[in-house]
Amino acid sequence: MDLVGAVKLFLLCCSLLCLCAATASPGKENSSEYRYPFIRTASSFSSPSSPSASQSGCHKTYDYIIVGGGTAGCPLAATLSQNFSVLLLERGGAPFDNVNVSYLKNFHISLADTSPTSASQVFISTDGVFNSRARVLGGGTCINAGFYTRASTRYVAKAGWDAKLVNESYPWIERQIVHQPKLAPWQKALRDGLLEVGISPFNGFTFDHLYGTKVGGTIFDESGKRHTAADLLAEANPEKLSVLVYARVQKIMFDTTAKRPRAVGVIFKDENGNQHQAFLAKRRGSEIILSCGAIGSPQMLMLSGIGPKAELKKLNISVVLNNRFVGKGMSDNPLNTVFVPTNRPVEQSLIQTVGITKKGVYIEASSGFGQSSDSIQYSHGMMSAEIGQLSTISPRHRTAQAIREYAEGKQYLPHEAFMGGFIIEKIASPLSKGHLYLINTNVDDNPSITFNYFSHPYDLERCVEGIRMVEKIVRTQHFINYTKCNEKNFDKLLNMSIKANINLVPKHTNDTKSMEQFCKDTVITIWHYHGGCHVGKVVNHQYKVLGVDRLRVIDGSTFRESPGTNPQATVMMMGRYMGLKILRERLGAAAGV
Predict the structure, then answer these.
(1) Is the model's pLDDT at 77 over the cut of 50?
(2) How far apart, in whole angstroms, are the C-alpha atoms of residue 486 and residue 481?
(3) What is the pTM of this model?
């Protein structure tokens, strides 16, 4: 098949896959999925009627209630349970027997699954960019591309973290769930192309954040099985940890009779819609800890009455504490991709190789299609990851008839349409900032989120530089030798990316001479959004919420910039780090950790 034919097929795939919004098959769950005896469904919880009923001894209270069993919440719960009673509440299910989550070849399906029990929850920012939130025990580690790399030493110092304790915390995670990848051919071609265009030195396989080209770790093992933050619960004390799945926390409860509001418990609903209450023990040091992520934590604070007073009053939320900074300073690392077709099938690979430049542009790659040739006959939904995060029309125009017609047409697509891969450029530490607002008081609904991609000119300048780097890599002899693609017109590749309709931003095709416009037209996400509960604005340096007692936020919502080339390593490390720090501060040498 010639290149023009391949381009047409690829674009046809984009259109068909994007409009197949019918739900992909959700990962099946069964009674054996929970793996550990301390993991139960939320409906099994016996709820006290009040704090006084809890304290009477009739019902259990907890030293720590952690809201959000995600990337930070799991290692945090496992650590704190070594010495104290912990209740971990996760709104989604367990990942262990969910095949959509567990295997690299199904990476795209977990994102495409839009069912209520999916491990991912789709949202669209007001910028018109598709995105996803994790909704599963293990959080983002269950739905991401698996790349594992540490934060830079500069980042650790800027965060004010204890470097020694940081360097104790990372290896705890790495020993359990991180692997050295077997480098796929597409990743080798990128490695060689990066070095040929001068992104050097080659730092080999390393977890460290170093300028130049490197191969990072992965949470996929040699067989392609994913290992997640939920696996870290194996290190928990089973006598002191209780984990409830399908526990949708509605709000935090406060005692407001004293001078400062004091967190006392949470209200949550189980999988059947029944409401429960869980309370903290009255012992000194007991706390509620939010680890709901950059969307969930500011949302939960506002639903609980902590946030901008005027915004809360609009929704008739009782104000516990007026803090205008909750939900502010939201940021997402803009990502732009260039699809490079090949004349033969390409082995599937997610992120393994990365080029790190001093200007804050990261170059990565992914390739191939993960399933057998007949899998393209199935609907992978509007979020199909074979071609990024895609849509051709707004959701309100996706009629049942349109879905049916596109699904039928997709059955006749040849497998060759999926031949090729992407070279990806991501902007580190974007200066463009946005915000998060509540739309309503339903915790299950996404809030309104704006990232303001490329509103700062320096972000746009770096994107242009990144795309120019991609162009150089595509033209290197190493890459041409691998792709066997003789087409050297880079403008055609850019127009392919524009026409793929990867977001809801109005397009400017045939305007590839304006790289700035290309960056704006084709911006997508790599799910590294952060902010909303910044240190110094919403929490202090111990991550305690300012102005209230017994409440912390420990997750990526506290970050001003995303650490490393992928934040998951540092978010997991943060859970372990803060768990150790809390234990040592509370118990000293008696903590035993």
Answers:
(1) yes
(2) 9
(3) 0.88
**Rounded to an integer, what distance in angstroms lies between the CA atom of residue 547 and that of residue 540?**
10
Phi, psi (degrees; rounded to nearest 5) at 106: -105, 15
Q: 478-497 as b/e, with b when 16 or more CB fall inside 10 Å?
A: bbbebbebebeebeebbbbb
| Cβ proximity of 21 and 395 under 8 Å | yes
Q: Report which residue type is found at 202.
A: F
Q: Do 354 and 216 meet the contact criterion of CB atoms below 8 Å apart?
A: yes
Closest C-alpha among 201, 226, 224, 227 to residue 214: 201
Torsion of CA 585, 590, 592, 593, to 10 degrees: 0
Give DSSP secondary structure letters for 357-376.
-TTSEEEEEEES--S-GGGG
Residues 6+ apart with CB under 8 A from 574: 72, 554, 555
Give the active site residues: 528
Under 8 Å between Cβ of 177 and 228: yes
Query: DSSP for 159-184?
Result: HT--HHHHHHHHHHHHHHH-B-----
The candidate with the shortest Cα–Cα distance to 173, out of 242, 227, 214, is: 227
54 vs 97, 242, 281, CA distance in Å? 35, 16, 8
Tokens of 75: 């290692």
Residues 325-341: tens digit of each pLDDT: 999 999 999 999 888 88
CA-CA-CA-CA dihedral for 151, 154, 156, 159, to nearest 10: -120
Closest CA to 485 of 495, 494, 476: 476
Residues 375-414 as b/e (b if ≥16 CB within 10 A, e otherwise) read bbebbbbbbbbbbbbbbbeeeeebeeeebeebbeebeebe
At 12-64, the pLDDT tens digits run 344 333 323 333 444 444 445 688 999 999 999 987 665 555 555 557 999 99
CA-to-CA distance for 563 and 180, rounded, in angstroms? 20
